[in-house]
Design brief:
This protein has 147 residues and is an alpha+beta fold. The protein has three domains: 31 residues; 74 residues, no CATH class; 32 residues. The strands form two sheets. A two-stranded antiparallel sheet has the order 1-2. Strands 3-4 form a two-stranded antiparallel sheet. α7 crosses α8. The longest helix has 28 residues.
Length: 147
């Protein structure tokens, strides 16, 4: 089967080779799930009550060596989890904490300008204060700094 990509005919095998080549360019941290990341993600799903236990458990492989290890627990989607739309599922953490939103991703220039204005005005006030003290009594400041 031929597929036209950017005006060029590409076979399915060729498309797969292109896909694999491009996939290798993507950092591994974006394409492979780490265990801790999964635990955090699943914990958020539990807090949102989008998943629940089925009540079915079974022995896990780790129990062959460690009998006190927890059993495997099976989960299912809840009605709330099924009803949540794609936008909510795209980032469950923001769904759980909507007050955070995507603010951590960008620094607002208006906030930076506000901080800079505050710092500059404080420096101006401080320099005027020091200058006025120096003009009123330069010897007292000199004497205090040399003690």
């Amino acid at each position: 089967m031929l597929v036209s990509v950017a005006g060029t005919d590409v076979t399915e095998e060729g498309a797969d080779k292109i896909y694999q080549r491009e996939l290798k360019k993507v950092s591994r941290k974006f394409t492979h799930m780490r265990y801790h990341s999964f635990l955090m993600y699943f914990g958020v799903l539990k807090k949102l009550k989008w998943v629940e236990t089925t009540g079915i458990t079974e022995d896990s492989g780790i129990q062959d060596n460690y009998s006190n290890a927890p059993s495997r627990v099976y989960y299912r989607l809840t009605a709330a989890g099924k009803a949540a739309g794609d936008e909510l599922w795209s980032n469950p953490l923001f769904t759980l904490y909507p007050e955070n939103g995507a603010n951590h991703k960008k620094v607002r220039p208006t906030k930076i300008r506000s901080y800079l204005k505050t710092i500059i005005s404080s420096l101006v006030v401080l320099s005027v204060l020091v200058l006025s003290l120096w003009i009123q009594s330069p010897l007292k400041i000199w004497w205090a700094s040399n003690e």
